[in-house]
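User: Sequence in, structure out. Go.
Assistant: Echoing your sequence, followed by the structure tokens.
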Amino acid sequence: MTMRIYRVTVGNPDGGARRELKVPSKTDVQASDAAVGLMKPGEAILDVMEIDDPYQQVDGPPPGTQTHPDRIT
């Protein structure tokens, strides 16, 4: 499975400021895992969407795997 780019929208679920994080991941579930390390206290994941980013610019590293959480595959 190849690495894809996801846009993860985070913010307060009750309204207010939102922001978008771009993370590399193999699946949308793993994209959520990658975004957690970039979130601020009180933020929640509001949306996860795969995007086409020809420049491959991201805000953080991909998540590890369940068997090797500290290794990027």
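User: And one key feature?
Assistant: The chain has a mean pLDDT of 85.
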